[in-house]
Predict the structure.
Amino acid sequence: MSASSQDGNGSRTVRDSYVVRNLTSGLRNIFQDRTTAVYFSILLFVIIMGLAGPAIAPHQYDEVQYTDDGDINRLAEPSMEHPLGTTDVGHDVLSRILVGARPTVITGLLGGAMIIGIGMTIGVTAGYVGGTVENVLMRMTDLVYGVPLIPFAIVLVALFSVGFTESIVVIGLILWRGNARVLRSQVLQIRERPFILAAKSTGASTPRIILKHVLPNIASMAILFFAIGVGYTILIQAGLAFLGVSDPFVPSWGIMVRNAFNSGFMDVAWWWSIPPGVLISVTVLSTFMFGRSYETTTGEGSDEAIIQAG
């Protein structure tokens, strides 16, 4: 019994050291690429903005700024006092950028988690279990493919007054469809491999095989899909905010672009519309490219997977 216990502990130690070694090796390979390191730095910067933005903002995001004469400081150009100028109602643009980073980060993480969570659950279950379960899940996936996202969100707004969080949930409930199909196809291949057949022959249960053998072999692709989901959610939620399909009182970057457009001064007050637009674009690009770099470094790349993810 003692020997068996020692062997078990030794086996766990070997496995743990193997996992840690592979993880650190994978991260080392990723950051050897300077471009990938730049993408990661950008994402880290955005996350820090999301965490600390409201605390370091020089003004309240909805605080009206006044001139020395007591007038509202409307559409002020960038200056030392207001590095990114002010809006048409006198709000400091830099403060709104810093505060708006938090809802943008929340949008990406929540949407990405929903997309990969639902997609991976359905894809792995359909691919490994097969049979009637697979048919039902794949027909449900086909049904979701037939639902257009933007019109669906607009209809929900008309019926239920969808707000900020609800708009993210709508995105997550639609965009899981692509990665569910791709992950299913990966699991169909994995379940025929010798180590899966060996696990079955030893009497291992289905949940144990999925957790111990299937999920680790699709982890790199799952991370890619999570990254794509984060980027797509930020981009689409900004588009929904621009169309008015979101809570206008949540100071996200998408709402900033919408407010600048609705004001009629978008072409004049460039300091109001360009910064949030550039930040959305750079964040989405960095998220996608970092996920792609991780997947190609630690797993087998798949251009088809990227195409179908949308």
